[in-house]
Write a structure and sequence with these properties.
Layout: E1 3-7, H1 12-21, E2 26-31, E3 40-42, H2 48-57, E4 62-65
Parallel strand pairs: 1-2, 1-4, 2-3
Length: about 80
């Protein structure tokens, strides 16, 4: 089964996408918010090292991002 990563999985679109895909794909998700769903983890994608560690220990066939940044969350060195 193909593995899909949803970045921003705790948001409305991320949750709906998970529901739509879970019967056909092995779905994983990351979000800055805690998620109590199998294969979902709380990861801060603005923390390069944390995000890199997560991506190095996992591999995905497809990755989709449904994230947004608020002005106070942005980092200029990304």
């Amino acid at each position: 089964m193909r593995k899909v990563l949803i970045i921003g999985a705790s948001g409305f679109i991320g949750k709906e996408l998970h529901q739509s895909l879970k019967s056909s794909f092995e779905v994983y998700g990351i979000s800055k918010s805690k998620i109590d769903t199998t294969n979902f983890e709380q990861i801060n994608i603005l923390d390069r090292d944390e995000f890199k560690r997560y991506m190095e220990k996992n591999s995905f066939d497809i990755a989709v991002s449904y994230t947004h940044l608020r002005a106070h969350e942005t980092r200029h060195d990304l």
